[in-house]
Amino acid sequence: MKRITLLCGSRKPAPGDDSRSAAREMLREVERGVRVTGHESAWLDLRELTLPWWDGRTGREYGNADLNHVCERIAASSAVVISAPSYWDALSGVVKNVFDLTGPDPWRGRVVAGLVVGMNDSSAYHGEDQLRQVVSAVGAWWAPYAFTIGNPRSHADRAQLRKDLRRFGTYVGLMADPERRQAGDGTDEERGVADERAGQPDSPSRQAAGR
User: Is the model's pLDDT at 195 over the cut of 60?
Assistant: First the structure.
């Protein structure tokens, strides 16, 4: 069994706001897909953590318990799914701040899959490109397919969107355990997801967003 960490990069909702964060709710659907593969899942939710803003120090130099927890959890993971909001054609600053704070050490050799949720299509695709570059720069392995969507609240077929997110979670589970994939192990659903992804020239996200 592998450990897959689900990192929610949304700070929403604001205090006193009872609405739900789309980035967080979509990550919950991805987790359901991860569970199909039998792997352990664990959460890091930036809304529930008190992290400093980067000032040039790295990791344990801050003496921050939540930051130490983030570093340890990532380092102990086989794969990390990052649910990253993106606004104004740019990756959310709180997500980038995590990489600045941790430095590359906990990320090296990890599989990282992006779930990028934009305020619109343009923001989503710029955010995906930026997240991929940061992930590569810290020595992690960027999963070939990301799930990138602009303004999911306007998505016409919510049931299909939830299904696509769960299938993306199953795909991440397979990416976390390449030996199992190469051996042809797994359920019919897992094998179907992997075969489907292998034949796609573009990410499932771009199809979901109509691109």
Answer: no
